[in-house]
Amino acid sequence: MGTPPSAVATLVERTSRYTTIVALPDGLKTEQVTPHLTRNRLNIPPQLRRTLTWNCGREIAEQQAITAETRMPIYLCKPRSPWQRGTNENTNRLLRQYLPKGVDLRTFDQTNLDAIAHELNHCPQDPRLPHSGRGLR
User: Is the pLDDT confidence value at 136 over 50?
Assistant: First the structure.
């Protein structure tokens, strides 16, 4: 979340840490999130989009429509249980280097967000340390 109503969605594959950042220029209501999430999910390689785990926000209320379009089951975390999405929470922390709190995220278009995700996805890592170097400038 940025300054209301600006927001982005982050999609992170758990084992490879492949990251996609989805612009949500219209806000966080379910009818605004569903088309952006569906469109961006279909651009991810099929082997990386087997399931989606989401927090229990109202923005994912149309989960059945997303599942029908993408053929990807959606699991919902228990309320107030961010550890059930640990990889995503860690990635969100790294993204604060690029998207600081309090900024209007509507100033970042999808091209900008794709460039940030590309940097995160192609940053050299020490294979002994699961998150070393990711997102560091």
Answer: no
